[in-house]
Amino acid sequence: MDNLNTFGKRLKYIRKTKGLTQRELANAIGLDQSAISHFERDKKKPDMDTLKTIADMLNISIDFLLTRTNDPVTYSRNQTDLIKKVNNNPYITAEELTKNYRFIIDGREATQAEIEEAIKYILIQRMMKKRE
Q1: 1 lies in some domain
Q2: How many helices (H) and strands (E) does the chain have?
């Protein structure tokens, strides 16, 4: 995320990650395509209402767009509480992991099936090491 150091770069990155064109994003939030283009080139900044609409439409945090965090996920109060719990006790079950977290890999959210496969892979690797 080193090169995602401006609002415009982050907006473009997330828009493309979501598979949207500038026109599609603009239509979804009630703007002209040229406005999205100006935002992505850092020629103009959206007003607060537009910023909220963009974040809601793309399902990302405003703090990510404003470069205040590198985590694009918007967390609910329950998720924030869980993160605090995990930070105090870093051991969580696979069920808690898949239920309460979103994984972004290569700019795309991992599916439930992918997460379960990753957990299975780890378990298989552990079983194989025990046999050695």
Answers
A1: no
A2: 8, 2
Cα(47)–Cα(53) distance, integer angstroms: 10
Give which of 129, 124, 80 is closest to 101, Cα–Cα: 80
Whether the CB-CB separation of 62 and 56 falls below 8 Å is answered with no
Residue ending a domain, among 18, 34, 65, is 65
How many separate domains does the chain show? 2
Domain that holds residue 125: 77-131
Enter the DSSP assignment of 108.
E
Tens place of pLDDT for every residue, the chain, 132 residues?
558 899 999 999 999 988 999 999 999 999 999 999 999 999 999 999 999 999 988 888 888 899 888 767 655 566 556 556 656 665 666 677 667 777 777 778 888 788 778 878 888 888 888 776
* 55 in a structural domain: yes
What is the separation of C-alpha 58 from the centre of its chain, rounded to a whole number of angstroms?
A: 9
In angstroms, the CA 20 to CA 102 distance is: 20
